[in-house]
Amino acid sequence: SQTIHQWPATLVQPVGSPLSLECTVEGTSNPNLYWYRQAAGRGLQLLFYSVGIGQISSEVPQNLSASRPQDRQFILSSKKLLLSDSGFYLCAWSVLLGDTEAFFGQGTRLTVV
Amino acid sequence: GQQVMQIPQYQHVQEGEDFTTYCNSSTTLSNIQWYKQRPGGHPVFLIQLVKSGEVKKQKRLTFQFGEAKKNSSLHITATQTTDVGTYFCAGRGNYQLIWGAGTKLIIKP
Predict the structure, then answer these.
(1) CA distance A67 to A74
(2) Beta strand pairing status for A108-112 and A87-94?
(3) Is B39 on the interface with A (CB under 8 A)?
(4) Cis-peptide, bond into residue B8, ω within 30° of zero
(5) Could you report the per-residue pLDDT of A44-55, keeping only the tens digit for each?
(6) Are B56 and B104 spatial neighbours (Cβ–Cβ below 8 Å)?
(7) B40 Ramachandran zone, left/alpha/beta (phi>0; psi -120 to 50)
(8) What value does the mean pLDDT take over residues A58-71?
(9) What DSSP state is assigned to residue A1?
(10) Which of A101, A103, A106, A108 is the best substitution to test chain B (most B C-beta atoms within 10 A)?
(11) Mean per-residue pLDDT over chain B, rounded
């Protein structure tokens, strides 16, 4: 069966520090991968999606970046965090882009202080 | 750009009362998905609707997709404490899912 792992679960980082969140999927090949951000009490904002290794599409311009170094690995990074980067970050995967259900990781609650 | 509006933002109900959330899209959707997010948790897929006018049921939950494939609703009959959470719709636009802002179901004490 397929599983998705996302870590860490919680993170407190100072303003200006770097960020690296990792997500891995097991049990499937060539998944579509997504990074979402959810502000407190709000909906999901799509940040990045990837249809294959090295292929990244950005939905919202910001100081975050994403990379997909391996088929089932998706990384969200920042060189310098801002206070506004605080939120709940969710990694997800799906078989087809938008046509099949998305499976979400447990999420990372990031607080920038 | 394409948008999916979801209302209401919150709904307070007594346990045993019904709950309904509505989604409306500015454009025709290929499909619409519904997710539930428990407090502190991650979204979990509930169902996908594809056909115009489609109605699907899961126990006390009834999902509808409008004839024009621009709107959808989720109705929960006789809410229980286990129904607490935020319900999201997500419609497939040109190539991606477009998410509604969610409706939070709150059971009054």
Answers:
(1) 6
(2) antiparallel
(3) no
(4) yes
(5) 989 999 999 999
(6) no
(7) left
(8) 90
(9) -
(10) A101
(11) 94
